[in-house]
Structure formats: C-alpha cells, structure tokens
Design goal:
- Strands 5-4-7-8 form a four-stranded antiparallel sheet, with no helix packed on it. A three-stranded mixed sheet has the order 6-3-9, with no helix packed on it. The protein has a two-stranded antiparallel ribbon with strand order 1-2.
- β1 and β2 form a beta hairpin.
- It has 165 residues and is α+β, with helices and mostly antiparallel strands.
- About 19% of the residues have low confidence.
- 13% of the residues lie in helices and 21% in strands.
- It has a single domain, classed as Immunoglobulin-like, CATH 2.60.40.1120.
- It starts with a helix and ends with a strand.
C-alpha cells in the first residue's frame, strides 16, 4: 500500500475510535441524546409525573458526573407541605437574580407528583441565585442567594425543609 492509503486508513481508524468513545460516554451535565433524533435536551421533572425517587435525599449524591444516577443534575430537591410531614406535589421552583422575586427570572423547574424537582439544564450560579417555591396558595422566598443547586444538601439536614402550601 502506498503512504496515502495508509494515512487514510489511519485517519479513518482514529475518527471511528472517537465516534465510538463519544457514543459510549455517560450523559453529561446539560445534555442527553433524544432517542432517534440526535438532538440534545435537558431532563427535568414535570408536574403530574412520578418518575423520581428518594424524597428528601441529596439528589446529587448519585446524579453527578461519574455517579450512578441517570443524568447529571444541576438543581434538585424535595418540597414538603407546610408542616414538613408530607411531600408537596407539583410545586414550581423559580430562580431569580434578586431576593424576594426581584431581578430577572433565570430558571423555572416544575416539581413532580412526589414532591421532587430536578433538572440537567445548564444553570449559572456564579453571581448567586435566589430561589422561590410556588405552591397552590403561597410563594416562599429564600432570603439568601445560593451558589449550588444541591437543595437537599442543606434543607432537611442543617436547615428546615423546603415547603409550600
């Protein structure tokens, strides 16, 4: 074989290796492949569904880079009722640039039937975000900004549970 053919085979082999490695990697932080479409999208909880689990646990213990959970969550947690005994279904979690719902609304996540909310959508916490939890009759605001979406790493551990009514 001449040098040109050998070089073409070598480059083709490298290219195919890269394609195979890419197709076998675990889902990344902010994208997953939609089956059959080749399009990227984020995975997020949806009102009315019951696909989540482990209410009250820090979701990012598993749903992280290299973790065993499906998806790499950027924000996740559990919402409870106002007495913090039962999970609160279908709450809406909003993230603002200012306290008490001021500034710009940056992200919105719908909670599911089990009280959990989660997303793999890319979120920028660099400047700090102020969460708000909207229930059926009230909206509760967190008075301090957060720099991570690991809501259950503090709530229910060192601070009160997230709640709505």
């Amino acid at each position: 074989m001449n040098k040109t053919v050998k070089a073409s085979i070598f480059i083709s082999t490298i290219f195919m290796s890269i394609v195979l490695i890419q197709s076998c990697t675990k889902e990344t932080q902010n994208s997953s492949e939609n089956e059959g479409t080749g399009e990227s999208s984020s995975k997020s909880s949806t009102a009315g569904t019951s696909k989540s689990h482990n209410m009250g646990q820090n979701c990012m213990n598993c749903h992280k880079q290299g973790g065993p959970g499906e998806g790499w969550f950027t924000a996740a947690g559990t919402v409870y009722d106002n007495v913090a005994n039962t999970t609160f279904p279908n709450a809406t979690i909003k993230f603002y640039t200012g306290p008490n719902g001021t500034g710009t609304l940056m992200y919105t996540i719908s909670g599911d039937n089990l009280g959990n909310f989660y997303t793999t959508q890319a979120m920028n916490f660099t400047a700090g975000l102020y969460p708000a939890v909207q229930g059926k009759t009230t909206t509760m605001y967190m008075s301090t900004s957060i720099s991570t979406g690991q809501c259950n790493s503090c709530h229910g551990v060192s601070t009160g549970k997230i709640w709505a009514q």
